[in-house]
Specification:
The protein contains 13 helices and 15 strands. The two termini are 32 Å apart. Helices cover 31% and strands 17% of the residues. The protein is α/β, with parallel strands linked by helices and 355 residues long. Bound molecules: adenosine monophosphate (AMP) and magnesium ion (MG).
Length: 355
C-alpha cells in the first residue's frame, strides 16, 4: 500500500499505480508518458483499440487535453463535475494516440474523491481505466485490485468506492464528432439528432442530463459500417467488448420458485428482501422464506439503491472467489421504485447475464 507522496513519486517517474475514485479503482499512469500508457494496456490485457479515460482535477488541466468547450459542455461540466460523468471531447493534438486509440477525441472525467483529486492536483492528468484484468468485474475496493494484480501491487487506498460502477459516458452533438480513425477510411458524422448521446449509462442519469437538452442512448444498430460494409465502426470502442461478468452464472430472480429448484450453493443479491418474504408468505404453508434461503449467501441491500450499486461487483467477485455457481439478482427492472441508478444497474447486470 502506498501513501500519497509515494504514489505521486511513482506516477511522476513513469510508474503505474492503482488509485481510488468514487466509481471504481483506476489503473493510473501519466497521460504524457507513452511507456507508462503501454504498461497499463499490457497489465490489464486491454485491447489497444479501446481508448482510456483521462482523469483531471481542474479545468486548467482539462485545457491541456481538450479543445475549448461548447456552452452545452461547460454547463454540463459545471453541474456534474467532480462526479461520475465522462465527456468525449475533441482532443488537443499533443494527446498521445495510445490514449485515444487514434480517435480525434478524448474521454475526460473529474472524479469526486478527495484523495484522488489531491493526487491529480500533484501529478497532473492521469489515464485511469478500471484497475482489473479486462473481462473481470471492475474493482470497488483494494482487495479486488489485489485479486487481479497480486498482493504487492502498488495501490493508493481510498476505501470502498461509494458509487461502485463505471461512469456515465456521453458526448454532446454540437461537436459533430467524427468516428474516423487515422487508419480507417470511413469518415461519417454522428448518426443522431439529439443534443446529448449516452454511450454508457452510469450514476448520472438520462433524466438528470435531460435538463440540458435532448438525450438519447447510443444503440448498437447505429453502428456505422466501414467501406466493405461488414465491420461496424463504433463511436465508443468499448461498446464492443464484454464486461463486468463473473465466472458464475448470473440470472435475474424472477420468482421465488426459481430458488426452490436450485441445488448448488448460490448468492442472492437483493435490493430489498421484504418483497420475497411476502411472496413466500403468499404461498402459505409450503415453505418459509427463512428455510428457503438457508442454503444461499444472502446480500440484502435493505431497499438502498446506493448500497445495491456498491455491492454489485463485490458480489460478483465473492461468487468467483468462493466458487459459487450461480448469482441470482433481484429483478430490479420490475421494481416500481425509481432511482437515478436504475438504468445503469440494469445495464451492468444484463451485461453480466449475457457475458
Ligand atoms: P473504462 O475505462 O474501461 O471503464 O471505459 C472507458 C470507456 O470510454 C470505454 O467504453 C471506451 O471505449 C470509452 N472511450 C474512451 N475514450 C473514448 C473516445 N475518445 N471516444 C469514445 N469513447 C471513448
Ligand atoms: Mg474497465
Amino acid at each position: 500500500m502506498l501513501g500519497i507522496k509515494e504514489a505521486v513519486e511513482r506516477l511522476s517517474s513513469g510508474g503505474v499505480v492503482a488509485i481510488p475514485t468514487e466509481t471504481v479503482y483506476g489503473l493510473a499512469a501519466d497521460v504524457t508518458n507513452l511507456q507508462a500508457i503501454q504498461e497499463v494496456f499490457s497489465l490489464k490485457r486491454r485491447p489497444t483499440d479501446n481508448p482510456l479515460i483521462v482523469h483531471i482535477s481542474s479545468l486548467e488541466q482539462l485545457g491541456e487535453i481538450s479543445k475549448p468547450l461548447t456552452k452545452l459542455e461547460l454547463s454540463i461540466i459545471n453541474k456534474f463535475w467532480p462526479g461520475p460523468l465522462t465527456l468525449i471531447l475533441p482532443r488537443k493534438k499533443k494527446v498521445l494516440d495510445a490514449v485515444t486509440a487514434g480517435l480525434e477525441t478524448v474521454a475526460v472525467r473529474m472524479p469526486n474523491h478527495s484523495l484522488c483529486l489531491d493526487l491529480l492536483h500533484k501529478t497532473g492528468p492521469l489515464v485511469g481505466p478500471s484497475a482489473n484484468l479486462s473481462g473481470t468485474p471492475s474493482p470497488t475496493k483494494k482487495e479486488h485490485v489485489q485479486t487481479d494484480f497480486g498482493p504487492s501491487f502498488p495501490i493508493l487506498d481510498g476505501g470502498v468506492c461509494t458509487v461502485g460502477f463505471e461512469s456515465t459516458v456521453i458526448t454532446c452533438r454540437t461537436n459533430n464528432l467524427s468516428t474516423a480513425r487515422k487508419n480507417v477510411s470511413a469518415n461519417t458524422k454522428m448518426p443522431s439528432h439529439s443534443d446529448i448521446i449516452i454511450y454508457r449509462p452510469g450514476a448520472i442519469s438520462e433524466q438528470q442530463l435531460s435538463e440540458f437538452g435532448s438525450v438519447e442512448y447510443y444503440s448498437a444498430s447505429q453502428a456505422e459500417q466501414d467501406s466493405t460494409g461488414s465491420i461496424p465502426i463504433l463511436p465508443s470502442p468499448g461498446l464492443k467488448y464484454r464486461h463486468y461478468a463473473p465466472k458464475a452464472r448470473v440470472q435475474w430472480l424472477l420468482s421465488i420458485d426459481q430458488l426452490r429448484a436450485v441445488t448448488s450453493t448460490s448468492i442472492l443479491l437483493l435490493l430489498d428482501k421484504t418483497q420475497l418474504v411476502d411472496q413466500a408468505q403468499a404461498i402459505e404453508g409450503t415453505f418459509s422464506f427463512q428455510e428457503l434461503i438457508q442454503s444461499f449467501n444472502l446480500v440484502d441491500c435493505e431497499d438502498s439503491w446506493e448500497r445495491f450499486g456498491q455491492l454489485l461487483y463485490d458480489t460478483f467477485r465473492v461468487a468467483d472467489i468462493e466458487n459459487y455457481t450461480h448469482v441470482f439478482v433481484q429483478d430490479i427492472r420490475r421494481s416500481t421504485a425509481t432511482s437515478s441508478l436504475k438504468d445503469a444497474l440494469i445495464n451492468r447486470i444484463e451485461k453480466a447475464i449475457s457475458g
